[in-house]
Amino acid sequence: MSVLQFTIPPLPHYMMGGMSRLDPGGKHVSRQNIGVFDLLFVREGCLYIGEEERHYEVRQGDALILRPDSYHYAIQECDAMTSYYWLHFQTTGSWSTYDAKLPALASEQQPEANPYAVWSYSTYTSQILIPSFIRVFDRNRTEELFDQLVKLNESFYSSGANWQQQLIFQQILRELSTSIEKEESTSPVLTCANRAAAYIRMNYKERITLQTLGEELNFHPVYIARCMRKVFGVTPMEYVLSQRIEQAKLLLLQTDYTVARIAEDVGFNQAAYFTACFSRAEGISPRNYRLRYAFG
């Protein structure tokens, strides 16, 4: 399963949406690097869509999210009347994709945000996982939410309607995320990987080893590593590193802590090693990251 991971805050935000219909012989438009996420939810019929080298048959009750940095195209014409909801959304925060075939987008390729320093407090970040392609668990509820979203287009210039659309959009993302949770009951691999990821997110500051994970989750360490590699496309230790780097980025922007203190606060024993890991992941040193974003 291909999974999109969004770091929050900030939450992904809705941009525009609607409903489309295709007659038999019609097909979805082909586009490349459109700069926004494109979420499709099929009401009836089937869309035949490719994204890079992966092909999808998006049938009634299926949802597909196309990435902003990829090429997507029709792989064949619709063989029946097909109707589907579509919406575009984006995030100003960091995101990544975990999949055996589609590579994660490097953080330096993300659209640059416009963060600023907040000296009086710190914000805890977390991750939400949204499937790129899934059979929605509660199809009727999801269709109802999309219908409400589209109807509010009639009040496009109303700030109240726009606010309501953002709230509905978050409920739609929740429905997709919940569909992953429902699959866990029949997927021990997904259950193991998500439990390991949740443990790491809660304990990234501590010393975490494969043996630690095995003892905490009551799974064999090799099995945990295999599950995380299959679901997220990274090893447990790579996932630990990504969590530490994300928290370090936040501290660089929101505090005046030294690099050495930040390194210690997020779980690194040596500031030099932290700097090397941060630079390798972000393409810029911690000090220059702070200068670029916190001070303009």
From TrEMBL:
Coiled-coil region list: none
One MF term in the entry's GO annotations: sequence-specific DNA binding
SUPFAM superfamilies: Homeodomain-like (SSF46689), Regulatory protein AraC (SSF51215)
UniProt key word DNA-binding: yes
SMART domains the UniProt entry points to: HTH_ARAC (SM00342)
InterPro entries (UniProt xref): AraC-bd (IPR003313), Homeodomain-like_sf (IPR009057), HTH-like (IPR037923), HTH_AraC (IPR018060), HTH_AraC-typ_CS (IPR018062), Tscrpt_reg_AraC-type_HTH (IPR020449)
UniProt domain HTH araC/xylS-type: residue ranges: 194-292
Record-linked PROSITE patterns: HTH_ARAC_FAMILY_1, HTH_ARAC_FAMILY_2
Keywords: DNA-binding, Transcription, Transcription regulation
Pfam family, one: AraC_binding
Name of the molecule in the record: AraC-like DNA-binding protein
Organism from which the protein derives: Paenibacillus cellulosilyticus
